[in-house]
Structures are given as structure tokens and as C-alpha cells.
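pinned: reference chain
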Amino acid sequence: MSPLLLLSFALQIACCVHVARTGRPLYWVFILLVFSFLAVIIYFIAEILPDLRHNPSARRTVRNLRNRIDPERDRRDAAKLLKASDTPENRRRLAEESLRSGDYAQAAELYEHALKGLYATDPDLMLGLAKAQFGLGDAQKARTTLDALIAANPGFRSADGHLLYARAVEDSGDLASALHEYETVAQGYPGEEARVRYALLLRRDGQLARARDVLQDVLDRSDAAPKYYQREQRDWIEAARRELAVLPRA
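pinned: its C-alpha cells
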């Protein structure tokens, strides 16, 4: 049997399975089996492609693939928009893209210029500035910015912002306060990074039994979690497994 024919069969079967799993009309099965490649193309355009456009996970996958091919595309587009119209939103967008690409110096400059007037205490802008400052290695300045954010916006909530605050406190040398911040953020953080970092600081502080409990909790939670969560958190799960393996008994 030719490779082309095998590919045709494989695509037809895959599409038929998709029809059954997603509850599409069963006439698609007949069309797919009778018209081969042409039916596969039509089915993809008519039924699969619209789902991909409206599926956040699929859009994220496409965006990540595009960023791997041309990682500076979004940043260039944001720079063009800012050049054409210097608005707070365009400045914010370029700052976010600079932050994403690791250009913390430009991101910090953009955020600082954006934090003026009506936006002087904008929590998202202040959080972005703190991320840029932390990326530049200035944990104390990032902590100061986050303290100002909290004072100006007491109702603002951000899991990533809270984790950044814990890291800034740790890197500024205030381990007791950092332990408190990590313990708090680890309780509701949507991922395993906060818990793993908390365990690492517990080990550094000599609290080996507590560190072991936190790491074991990471593994237990992950084992019971859906597969997509395990894939997303794979790096932190593996980090927890490695740390637990070498952690001395208390």
C-alpha cells in the first residue's frame, strides 16, 4: 500500500474520530469515507478551523509557535503602533512586549513614562514596572514599587504579583518576611512554582521537615491533577521531585 494511501486513511480515521467525540453530524463520516483527501480538507476548514480560532489553548499554541519562528514580531508591531500614536495603551503594549522578550531596561523606562497623570497609580503598570526592576536584578526597588502598588490599590489582587513580591522580599535578604509571603501565596497560587520556591526557602532556613512536606504535597497534588495540568507544570513538578530526592532527613 502506498504511503499516500496510508496517509489518506489515517486522516480520514482521525476526522471520523473527531466527528464522534465532538458530536458533529454523522453525515460527515459518510462524506469523509467516500471523498478522501478532499473531504478531509473541507472538514478541517468547516469544522476544525473555527474551533481553533475560538479555543484559548489552540490560540496560545499558535502564538507560541509564531513567537518561536519570529520572537520579535509582536514587539515590532507594538513599536510601530507607539510611533504612530503615543497613547498610554500603546506604551503599555510595547512595555509588555519588551518585558516578555527580556529587555527589562526598555520595559522599565516605558512603564516609568506611562505611570503619570491619571495612570500614576495604575496597578497593572506598577506591577509591570516591578517585574522589569526585578528582571534588572534590583529586588529592593521592585519591593518598593510593589509596596507602593499595595498602598495605592489595596483591593488589587494578582497571584503572579504576590509571588513576585515574595521573591523580591527573599532576594532583598528579609528571609523571615519572605517565608510568610511564600506561605500565604502558596495556598492559592494556580500552579506549583510558589510551593516549590517556598520549599526551597524552608530548606535554606533549616526547616527540612516542613520543606519535605511541601514538596511531597506538590507531587501528591500533581498526581491527582489532570494531564494538561501535569504538562503545564512539568518543570516545577520535576524540580520538586529532584529536591525531595536529595533533601536530608530532619
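why pinned: DSSP finds 14 helices and no strands in the chain. Residues 27-54 form the longest helix (28 residues).
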